[in-house]
Design goal:
mainly beta; 13-stranded parallel β-sheet; 7-stranded antiparallel β-sheet; 31 strands; about 0% helix
Length: about 300
Amino acid sequence: MASGEYLIAAHTNDDLDLFTTADVPASQVGSQRWTRTWKVDETGEVGTTNLVFYLAGGNNFGLSSTYKLLVDNTTQDGNFSDATVISGVYNAGAQTMTFNTNLNDGDIFSFCGFEQILTIHSINSGPWSIPTTWDCTCVPTANDSVYIDPATNVTVDIAAEAAYLSVESGGTLTMTTPESITLGGNLDILGSVIITAGEITLIEHLNQVVNAGGNTVDLFDIEINKSGGSSVTFTNGTYVLNGTLYPTMGDIIMDAAPTQFIVNSISGVGGARIAAVSSSSITGNVTVRRYIEPGVEIGVALRLL
């Protein structure tokens, strides 16, 4: 860039869970694009620019090989039917899509891809972020149903996401670092979990169910962040919370006995807790264990006269 050259992009601020199929180019029919669009203002000639889209946290909506950058650089009217279609490079670990292109003053761009809903099974023990862990040779996205199969142990090492997650009998899910799993559907824990850190976040506007399969399940942080008056029901087991329950939005239902939800305190200075309840409610039984420091034993003698 030379002195006095500038490139600025501003967007329409549409939420990234809003899509349209109305005006994609003919070569991309069947795909959907974000309704959010960006417009470019350029002074001078900046040249080639790298655009990086961060897709983690629920924004990884499609099949990675189909993601395209759409640049309306002819009519510049925001209708992408005549847009230039540009391919990029997907990074599965970082969940980013990078495009290298020369944007010009007045260009409008958006991002599209083919929505993909896969049923994915683990075939090897290993990190969630490694494609060879899964039978799809890919990393699961927010649209996928994910199964951790028997004899495999999957370790959450990124901000993972899925539409549905089942830890099958004989399978193991491990979370020992401050990573997260964001789920838009149900969670079935029929196998084993080793969770000493990290957060499970339950989202979307539909009712969700967490099923422990009759087991005792240790959890760390949980966030309930739902919209539209929907709920999360914990059922069929004992849940031991060792971190924080964040009831951000949406109703939390503890199913009837024998289901138990235990807020566990294991020291005099820390332990599990329920954060401030804002746009949420909790119904059903919750057991709060409080740690009591060991004290001096006091003996009492009674003399009968």
